[in-house]
Amino acid sequence: MESKLVYIAESLQIRRDTYEMSNKSIINKDFVDHPGSVLIIGLRGKKILFVRQWRQPIKSSTLELPCGTLHRSEISVEGADREFREETGYSAEEYKSIGRFYVAPGYSNEITEYFLASNIFESPLDQDEDEDISLEEYSLDEAFKLIKNNKIIDQGTITALNIYKSII
């Protein structure tokens, strides 16, 4: 029925929609209008590249697969290469998409596309100003032990590793 922007920031917007439900009630609901994001499983031999980085919303560092927000109108594979280079210092000869998933469809339209980066090589870009990242490497078995021990708590990372395990 109606949709209007109520907040605009660099990486996201808040939109308020007014719409009619099947029972004819009128709903006003705010949600995050997001340009999308990418997550990269980068392989170096038998190890997977992870990043440890500060996450201000939870006031803690997390261990995650490299990921980040797309620039508006950026093609996802280009965003994957940019984010991978910024966060790990590596690029890849090939980025293969292994799926696209809604992050939290109850309050956001953000879709994250997962990529498998193969034949990686050094090609660093400067990190974003708000990033304080260190690089770590783990085998898939080690990563699952870290999940079991609550050392990896990011749902995108956990989902991506499970998808990767199912296709190798």
Q: What's the CATH topology name of the largest domain?
A: Nucleoside Triphosphate Pyrophosphohydrolase
- Major β-sheet, in short? 7 strands, mixed
- The number of helical runs is 3
CATH-defined architecture of the largest domain: Alpha-Beta Complex
Span between termini: 46 Å
* Overall average pLDDT: 94
Instruction: Report the C-alpha radius of gyration, rounded.
Output: 18 Å
Strand content: over 45%
H/E element order: EEEEEEEHEEEHH
- Envelope shape: globular
Under CATH at level 1, the class of the largest domain stands as: Alpha Beta
CATH H-level superfamily of the largest domain: Nucleoside Triphosphate Pyrophosphohydrolase
Tell me the helix content: 10-25%
Strand segment count = 10
Low-confidence stretches: none
Helices and strands: which structural class? alpha+beta
Count of individual domains: 2
